[in-house]
Each structure stands twice: as structure tokens, then as C-alpha cells.
Amino acid sequence: MIQKSFLYLFILLFFSCTYTQKINTGQGAYDLKQYAIAIDYLTEEYGEAKQSEQKASIAFLLGKSYQYTNNDQQALNWFNKSVGHENSTDALRELAFAYKKLENYPAAISNFEKLQNRLGKNAQITREINICRQAIGFFEKDDRYEYTTTALGFNSAYNDYGLTRYGEFLVFTSDRNESEGDALYNWTGNSFSDLYLAAPDGAQPQPFDADLNTDFNEGTACFSQDLDEMIFTRCYAETDGDEYCKLMRSFKEDGIWSEPKVLNFVRDGINYGHPCFIENDDVLVFALQKKGSKGFDLYYSERTRKNWSQPAPLPDQINSQGNEKFPTSHGDTLFFSSDYWPGIGGFDIFMTVLDNGEWSNPVNLKSPINSGADDFSFILKNDSRQAQTEMSGYFSSNRNISKGDDIFYFEKRIKENIEIIEEPKEEPKDSIQVFLAVKVVAMELEDPTNPQSEVIDKIPLNDATIVIDRLNNQKFQTDNKGILIQEIAPDGRYRLKVSKENYLSKTKDINTNSIDYNQKDKSYTINVEVVLDRLIKNEEIVLKNIYYDFDRWEIREDAQPSLNELAKILKDNPEIKIQLASHTDCQGNDAYNLNLSQKRAQSATDFIVQTGIASSRIQALGYGETALINQCKCRDCSEEDHQENRRTTFKIID
Which of 35, 192, 324, 331 is least enclosed, having the fewest CB within 10 Å? Predict the structure, then answer.
């Protein structure tokens, strides 16, 4: 069998190479993400190094290697040594985050302040200082409840994580010695991961299924409610190139799991992981690492009649400028982990609730569920509320610094004889700092010259210009990740104008008055994503949901949102002109169809002009049936074919 090569699901799900290359230096092993080997080389090289600058560089690589292998205390020790030798900006930044992850917030704040003194005022560093101050409050106990957290008996000396329910049993991921294959993974020095089945009582786990666990890496599964369908992660390379993690699908037939197949929407060159069913198994939520990015966002796909729809990202109040991973669900509540939203350190677990089609702002679960370490894969027991138990379930964490990841059971119990008194809501402090984090992206199209072609990815736009009206119309530029972070007032309305050469400009309104700030918050981040469309001239774009009554041309109410959206494009881009066209199907005679389509195009144009757009910027044109987009013979066309031809379009013209 092909030797396993694993993308450590917990740390990064990041690709590595399958080809063999001779390694004889710590830097070489580090560059190939073979961190366990790198530590051995680098430790020896550090002892042999003579110059302080050389020792600083080696110590920094050792700190990063220990960081990637989840040894946070050793990472901090080596970052400290690196700073002592050279005091570089990178080492100082990593040292501050290492102290934060180990819950030494005063030391973290001190080092972030040193970093700010060196770099000058920096919104991102100020935000981290405020988060560290706020994190201390996350450890305050609520007198109404008491928690118990217990490491499960089947945890090993290796990494055990990614728990999910499987009927009365539990399925989790582990890289313990019993895993398939004889090779060790050079990232961690452990075996490669497999799926394991365990009983909640802590009995010795067993491999989940011999046909699903392979010499590749398997992990983080989810199951349908009837337990007959599973989706899980497997990381491998199709050929001798780079490896990527894919979502696999298997069905149970007569008690036997079928040969897993890659989900239909999975594309090469993109990492997928951590699947989770919601909405009665009709929606799949998962983590996705966009091409060319080191970060993960949460995406969703909807079940279709035969397969799954193309993925779309969850909204901005969930996806941040950092990483979001390990989604799980319980009813209408989604749990996930983020290393960006204000928390205690590392990855924290957050919850958001779906209400009337909208996701609420994420709420941090605080201590003791969250810690300074990485906390993730949170699931509730189905019978969570019993007697004095408010909530119970499981989560994964690497808070036990002497080991790797472990799985914990928790209970949140209501204290007996405690009178619950609702505290009056206080107004937020005037001193709260509000940061606007804007990420500017563009849709990568399968055919870059065709605006109607399939979207295959979102890519960040660096050097995009952002003008903020209430900041004296000052111009800002996005960084190489397409991100701008700027401090704004906690009570005001802002309008952003985002632009970049060869893209259509877009405005975005922000209202901080409507935010329900928490009294204890020291800072609050508004996360905004702006998608710019590439400026493509003389190519037709179909306006969705533009329908007319039979033999009529008046604009119906359900067509108005699309036309209002087109009007906004024209307002945001006063230099462009468009042709607005209407098409009919092939039914009816040519003259009738041409006349009807011209009236419909003119009605749409008149509607947009009424919003304040000059009529000279719009050319109304009816095509009748002269530009059909499918090749069926008219008498043989289905209603779907006719509907495809009955369309209203626009294109940007010179």
C-alpha cells in the first residue's frame, strides 16, 4: 500500500510533499514540515552554533517546531532564548502569543507592549492586548453553576481528538500506535491517524472499520441521523505531487460500509476537513482552506437530489480574519473553534444559533470549557439536561501540556438552593475599543473572461483601496492577505468605498450603534468581507429572479431586489454604462417576441432610472428570440429550456 503522509488535522491541515528528499539539516527538515526530525537536528545545531545571531535563528525555528508539535512550554522556552540572543520582532511576537496560550496574560501583555513600542501604534497588537485583559475575566466563576471536567479513560499518550456521536458509541481520531501502517509521521513523530470506536464508559477503543482506515490519514467524521451515511476526512495525493485533505463519503449497506468516494464538489489543490451535518442532514458544514491561503473558513453545502451543491462560506459574523475549524451541531446551535475571535488563547470554542435564517454573533464558552491551549470538537450529549445538570458533553483540548490532544467529558450543574437573580443590564463602558476588520476578496472563475462561469474559489485582494467617510475620507490599503484593521468609534455610522483597478467598486455601510456590546468587553471587532467583481466588458450577465406575468412587461415586486442591486452597482461605479437586455423563448412569432422583449427591457430601465441613475447610462434593448442560449428544437424544448431563454441581462459597454 502507499505509505501514509498526514496533514496534521488539528494544527493546520496543510499540504506536504510525498516525494523523498534527503534531509541533513534542521532547516531542511523544518521546510519539509518534518518537525519531529527538525527538533533533533536543530537542538544539536544550537549547541554547536558560536554566533549569537545564528543561535537566535535556530532557537526561533525550534520554538516554531515545538509549537507545531503542540509542546507549548518548550515553544515558549525557545522563543525566550531567541529573543535573548537577538530580540527580533518575529521572536517577540511569537513569545507574546506563547505566553497568552499558557494563560500568563501579564507576561503576554508586557511583550505585546514591547512589540508595539518597537512598531508604533498597531491596531492588531492593541486588539491582542485588550483580548488578554478581557481573557482574565473569562475565568471568573458563575455562582449559579459548577463545572466538572474529566479526561476520558480511553485517552492515550498520543493525540486523541475530533469526537463525534455514533448511536450509543463515540467515534474519534487518534495517532496512537495501533493505527494502520508501520511508518511514523515526521511532523509529530507519532503514527498516522485513524478513526476509532469507543463506548462512553471508557472501555478499550477499537479501530472503527478496517476498510475505512488505511495507510493514509483518516479523521474527523460525522454521521447521518439514521447512521447509514458517514462523511470523513482523508489526506492523500492522487499522484506524486502535494497532498491535500478531502471529504469522503460512505454508505452502510447490510451492516457493511461501502468503499468511500470523494464528495462531488471537492477540488484538487484545496484542503477540506471537519464535516458536520445540520438541518436534518440536508446541509453539510465543514472547514475549507482556500487555494493559496494558510487560513481556514467554515463553508456549507446543501444536499441536492443526487449530490451536494457547490460550497458557499458561512457569513462574516462566523468567519473571521483568522481560522475557523471543527464545526459541530446540536439542534439549531452550531459550535466551532476560532483562533481570532476574542478568547482565552489558542483555539477557543464558540457557539452561534440559527434563527429565522440568520446566524447570531458567536459567544465564547469561556472557562473551564476553553483554556489558553487549543480547545475544539465540542459536542453535547443528547440527554444533556437532566435534573440538576444544565449541560453535559465532550470536547477536545491539548491543555494537558505533558501529552498531546485529549478528549474530556464535562458537566455543567446548577448549584442547589441558589436563587437566580437576573442582573440588570448595564450600558457598555465608554472606553471599549472597536476595530473594523475588512477583508477584500474576489471570486476566482473557472473562465476568467466569462462572468457567468462557475466560481471555484475566493482569493484575497491586496492593495485594494478603502475609503472610510467618517475618518475624513482617508484612504487605506489592504495587506497581502486582503485585510485592513482600523479602530473606529463605538457609536456611529460609516460608509466604506472599496476599489481596485480592473474591478467594480463597492460601498458597504457599517452601523456601530446597533451593536449590543457586553459590559465586560474591553474590545469588539466588526468583521466584514467585501467581494469585488472583476470588470469584464461586453459579456452578458443574467439578472436572477426577473420574471414577468404572461404577455406583460410591468416590473413585478419579486423582480425589484435584483434591479435595485444593479442600480447600486451603477451608483458605486459612476463611470460605467450598461446595456440592459430582455430575451424571450422561441414560442410566439418573431415580431411579437421582439416587441414584448423591448417593452420589458424598457420597463427595467425605467425602474433603475427612478432610483437616480441617468438614463444616458443605460441602453435598453429587446432581443426577442434572436439570442437563445440552448439548442433544443422549439417544439421539443422543456419548460426548463424555455425558462432558461426567458431572461433579463446586462453587460458593461464601452
Answer: 331
Residue whose C-alpha is closest to residue 21's, from 12, 11, 31, 13: 31
Specify the CATH superfamily of domain 541-653: OmpA-like domain (3.30.1330.60)
Looking at residue 81, its amino acid is K
pLDDT at 182: 56
Residue 383's pLDDT is 63
Answer for the pair 103, 495: CB distance below 8 angstroms, yes or no: no
d(CA 62, CA 55): 10
CB 246 within 8 A of CB 232: no
Pairing assessment for the beta strands 523-532 and 433-445 based on DSSP bridges: parallel
C-alpha to C-alpha distance for 424 and 140, rounded to whole angstroms:
18
Please report the pLDDT score of residue 548 as a whole number: 63
Of 423, 368, 373, residue with least CA distance to 146? 368
Q: Give residue 632's identity as a one-letter amino acid code.
A: C
Collapsing DSSP to helix, strand or coil, 642 comes out as: helix
Residue type, 576: I
Residue pair 289/295 in contact by the 8 Å Cβ criterion: yes
Residue 137, classed as helix, strand or coil, is: helix
Q: Answer yes or no: are the C-beta atoms of 600 and 543 closer than 8 Å.
A: no
Q: Which three cell numbers stand for residue 618?
A: 443605460
**Which residues, 6+ apart, have CB-to-CB distance to 610 below 8 Å?**
none
618-624 and 577-583 beta bridge pairing: parallel
pLDDT for position 7: 32
Place of cell 473557472: 446
Q: Provide the grid cell at 319.
A: 468567519
Per-residue burial over 591-613, b = 16 or more CB atoms within 10 Å of its CB, e = otherwise: eebbebbbbbbbbbbebbbeeeb
Residue 283: closest CA among 345, 354, 218, 338:
354
Phi, psi of 327 (to 5 degrees): -75, 145
Indicate the CATH number for domain 433-532.
2.60.40.1120
The dihedral sign for the CA sequence 49, 54, 55, 58: negative
What whole-number distance in Å separates Cα of residue 8 and Cα of residue 157?
17
Question: Is it the case that residue 416 has pLDDT exceeding 50?
Answer: yes
Superfamily of domain 34-137 in the CATH hierarchy? Tetratricopeptide repeat domain (1.25.40.10)
The second-level CATH assignment, the architecture, of 145-414 is 5 Propeller (2.115)
How far is the C-alpha of 303 from the C-alpha of 305, rounded, in Å? 7
CA-based Rg of the chain, rounded to a whole angstrom? 28
CB of 411 closer than 8 Å to CB of 389: yes
Is the pLDDT confidence value at 429 over 70? no
Domain boundaries, the chain: 34-137, 145-414, 433-532, 541-653
Confidence class for position 317, pLDDT limits 50, 70, 90: confident
- Among residues 203, 200, 202, 160, the alpha carbon closest in space to that of 179 is found at 160
Q: Tell me how many helices (H) and strands (E) the chain has.
A: 10, 34
Integer Cα distance of 543 and 253 in angstroms: 44
274 neighbors 233 (Cβ within 8 angstroms): yes
Query: In which element (H, E) is residue 477 found?
Result: strand 474-477
Amino acid letter, 139:
F
Cell of 29: 527538515
Beta-ladder partners of 194? 174
Q: Is pLDDT of 434 > 80?
A: yes
Distance between CA 468 and CA 498 in Å, rounded? Answer: 9
**Does residue 368 have a cis peptide bond before it, meaning omega lies within 30 degrees of 0?**
yes
Backbone angles phi, psi at 312, to 5 degrees: -135, 145
Q: Between residues 527 and 456, which one has the greater pLDDT?
A: 527
- Please report how many Cα atoms fall inside a 13 Å half-sphere around the Cα of residue 125, on the Cβ side: 20
